[in-house]
């Protein structure tokens, strides 16, 4: 199936879709050399693969989709690329944000309309390095997901909830996932239908529903809702690096904590996630002065 869509504003496909990638070897995502982007999803109609690319005139988006979920993916294409987003809702109060927004006119917040596909990798990213989390996601999806429909070899569709629930404990261990994160995922997939229904709720209500699952807190719910809902105010709280980056960019304070970050972003109430995203895109980040979070081999614990 195919569809052509013309966005009525500048669009940067990479800026819109990159937040959905979980590492350079994500088995559900591929940035091809021809400038196209491929991603897989388990939609309400079944697994599907979507390919999107800018047309020759750079004004149209050309999309193709395969599998039982193809029609669903094509119907959701505009939302996925930011049609429901409103960048003008943010009024820059800092020169840095004004300059970055001017330089990145194609930035739009994606809305996938799917919760579990963003929630599970977010849980895997709790309290570990990104490399460890990406490895766990890659290993588990390749082993327990299914080959994606369509012509792109090597892509996989995330496992269905029941399959996640049946992964034996030793396989979580081999993927480097401790019991706490594995148990959180198992609790989440047992109520998968209720969590997927959260996509119909306002972002704040959706976060509250996700946080009813033990092990899912504000950090994980925000990381999920940013992608499933395209929520412009779903600021990530409890992150190891973000407060210092925001503090450094807006106030020269590399030691800022969550409270200081919230105070600095108070003028952007309703748009705090967008403001943080612009700060990250600005490149104004403090030099690293402390070691990275150490990798932990749970097999030695």
Record keyword descriptors for this entry.
301 residues; alpha+beta; 5-stranded antiparallel beta sheet; two-stranded antiparallel ribbon; 15 helices; 11% strand
Mean pLDDT: 95
Series of H and E elements? EHEEEEHHHHHEEHHHHHHHHH
- Structural Rg: 19 Å
Major sheet summary line: 5 strands, antiparallel
Plain-language structure description:
With about 300 residues, the protein is α+β, with helices and mostly antiparallel strands. It has 15 helices and 7 strands. The chain has helices spanning about 15, 70-75, 75-80, 95-105, 115-125, 130-145, 160-165, 170-175, 180-190, 190-195, 205-210, 220-230, 240-250, 260-265, 270-280; strands spanning about 1-5, 30, 35-45, 45-55, 60-65, 145, 155. The strands form 2 sheets. A 5-stranded antiparallel sheet has the order 1-5-4-3-2. A hairpin with a 5-residue loop joins strand 2 (about 30) and strand 3. The radius of gyration is 19 Å and the shape is globular.
Give the SSE map:
Layout: E1 2-5, H1 13-17, E2 29-31, E3 37-43, E4 46-54, E5 61-66, H2 70-75, H3 77-80, H4 95-103, H5 116-124, H6 130-144, E6 146-147, E7 156-157, H7 161-165, H8 169-174, H9 179-190, H10 192-197, H11 203-210, H12 218-228, H13 242-251, H14 258-264, H15 272-282
Antiparallel strand pairs: 1-5, 2-3, 3-4, 4-5, 6-7
Helix pairs in contact: 4-15, 5-9, 5-12, 11-12, 13-14
